[in-house]
Amino acid sequence: MRTVIVEDERPILELMKLVIGRNRHLEIVGQYTDSREAMEGIPGLLPDVVFVDVEMPFMDGIELSRKIKNFNEDIQIVFVTAYEKYALDAFKVDAVNYILKPITEEDLNATVDRLLKNRHAAVKSSEDDKKNKMFILGSFRVYGSSGREITRWSTSKVQELFAYFVHKKGKCTSKWELCDILWPKFHSKKAEHNLYSTIYRLKTVLNKAEIENTVYCENGKYGMDFESFYCDSWEFESFIENNSSVDDRNIGDWEKNTALYKGVLFGNDDYLWDMELNEKLVRYYSLSIKNIARYYMKMKIYSKSEEYLKKAIAANSFDEEAHDLMMQIYFYMGNKTALVRHYKKLSDLFQKELHIKPKESTLKLYKSLLIKL
Question: Lower Cβ count inside 10 Å, N or C end of the chain?
Answer without folding.
Answer: C
